[in-house]
C-alpha cells in the first residue's frame, strides 16, 4: 500500500518561481537549433554530451560547467558541447542514491519539492555562468515537465527505452532525444523505440489525454550491452555501427551518438579516451560512418574516479569519471579531428 507523504505542486508553479530570462531563452533557442542541425546533418560539427555521472552537488557541478564554458570558446567551431546535468540516477537494484531530483542532499532524506527547486536553480546558474544549456536523463517521464523548458537534450536510458510512456513522451519533446540501446544490446528494440519516438502519438500524461506530432530528432545512443552471464559487450565498433546504419532506413535524420562509458568501456573510465579515438579513426576511414556518427557521450568531472561519499570536491559519488585534465585534452584532440 502506498502512503501519501505530501502534494507536489504542478510544474507551472515551479517554473513561475524560477522563470528563464529573455536572454537565457534566446541562448536556449540558439543552442537547441545548433544541436538539431548536428543531428539532421545540416552541420559538420560533432555533438559532445559530457559531464559527471550524476550532478550530486551544485558547487562542483557549476565549477565544472564554468570550465566547460571557457573551453567551449576554443572548440565551438568544431564541437557542440552539451553539459550533463544528470539529476536522476537509475539504480540496477532499485536502492542507493537516486539523484538530486529525489534527494537534493546526497546524505539526506528524499525531498522532491526541494529537489526540483535545486535543479532549476542549478540549471539557471549554469546557463548564466557558461552560456551552455544542458542534458539530463528522462528517468521518470512525468517529471520532464518540471525541467523541459531548461534542457536542450534529453536521454532515455537503457532500462527505460522499451517502455511505452518514455517513447511517447519523447515523441512530444521539441529538442533532440537520444535513446540508448537496451541493456541486452538488442538493436532491433532500439530501432523500434526510435520509430515510436519519431511517430505521432496519443496517450495519457499527467491526468490529460495528450497528442504529439512525433520527434524527428529522436536518435540512437550506443552504450554497449550485457550478455546472459553479465559480461559487457561493446557496440561502438565499426561493424555494429554500420549494421545500425542499415537498419535506420525509413527513419528521419539517421544519427548515432557513441556512449564511451558504461558497457562500451566496462566502466573503465580511462578507456573512454581510447574509444573516442577509435571512433574518430573510423570516421576518417569511411564517409558513411562519418555521416551517421554525430557525437559522443562522455562521463567526466573535476577529479577522476569515484568515491562512496561526498568527501573530495568534484569527484563522482556514482560511476567513475575522467578528470578535468584528461577531459580538456580529449576535447581539444576531438576538435582537431573533426
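-> sequence recovered:
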Amino acid at each position: 500500500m502506498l502512503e501519501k507523504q505530501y502534494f507536489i505542486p504542478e510544474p507551472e508553479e515551479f517554473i513561475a518561481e524560477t522563470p528563464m530570462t529573455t536572454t537565457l531563452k534566446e541562448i536556449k533557442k540558439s543552442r537547441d537549433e545548433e544541436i538539431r542541425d548536428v543531428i539532421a546533418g545540416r552541420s559538420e560539427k560533432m555533438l559532445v554530451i559530457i559531464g559527471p555521472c550524476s550532478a550530486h552537488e551544485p558547487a562542483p557541478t557549476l565549477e565544472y560547467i564554468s570550465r566547460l564554458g571557457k573551453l567551449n570558446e576554443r572548440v565551438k567551431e568544431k564541437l557542440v558541447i552539451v553539459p550533463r546535468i544528470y539529476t536522476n540516477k537509475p539504480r540496477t537494484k532499485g536502492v542507493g542514491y537516486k539523484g538530486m531530483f529525489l534527494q537534493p542532499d546526497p546524505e539526506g532524506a528524499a525531498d522532491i519539492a526541494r529537489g526540483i527547486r535545486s535543479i532549476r536553480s542549478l540549471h539557471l546558474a549554469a546557463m548564466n555562468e557558461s552560456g551552455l544549456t544542458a542534458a539530463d536523463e528522462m528517468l521518470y517521464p512525468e517529471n520532464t515537465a518540471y525541467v523541459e523548458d531548461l534542457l536542450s537534450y534529453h536521454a532515455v536510458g537503457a532500462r527505460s527505452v522499451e517502455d511505452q510512456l518514455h517513447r511517447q513522451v519523447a515523441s512530444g519533446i521539441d529538442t533532440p532525444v537520444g535513446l540508448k540501446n537496451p541493456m541486452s544490446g538488442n538493436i532491433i528494440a532500439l530501432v523500434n523505440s526510435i520509430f515510436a519516438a519519431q511517430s505521432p502519438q496519443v496517450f495519457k500524461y499527467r491526468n490529460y489525454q495528450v497528442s504529439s506530432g512525433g520527434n524527428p530528432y529522436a536518435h540512437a545512443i550506443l552504450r554497449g550491452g550485457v550478455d546472459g552471464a553479465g559480461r559487457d559487450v561493446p557496440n561502438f565498433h565499426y561493424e555494429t555501427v554500420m549494421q545500425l546504419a542499415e537498419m535506420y532506413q525509413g527513419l528521419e535524420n539517421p544519427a548515432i551518438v557513441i556512449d564511451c562509458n558504461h558497457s562500451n568501456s566496462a566502466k573503465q573510465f580511462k578507456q573512454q579516451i581510447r574509444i573516442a579515438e577509435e571512433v574518430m579513426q573510423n570516421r576518417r576511414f569511411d564517409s558513411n560512418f562519418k555521416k551517421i556518427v554525430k557525437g559522443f557521450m562522455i562521463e567526466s568531472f573535476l577529479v577522476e574516479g569515484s568515491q562512496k561519499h561526498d568527501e573530495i570536491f568534484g569527484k563522482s559519488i556514482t560511476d567513475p569519471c575522467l578528470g578535468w585534465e584528461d577531459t580538456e585534452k580529449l576535447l581539444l584532440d576531438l576538435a582537431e579531428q573533426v
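The domain at 11-37+47-319 is CATH 3.20.20.70 (TIM Barrel).
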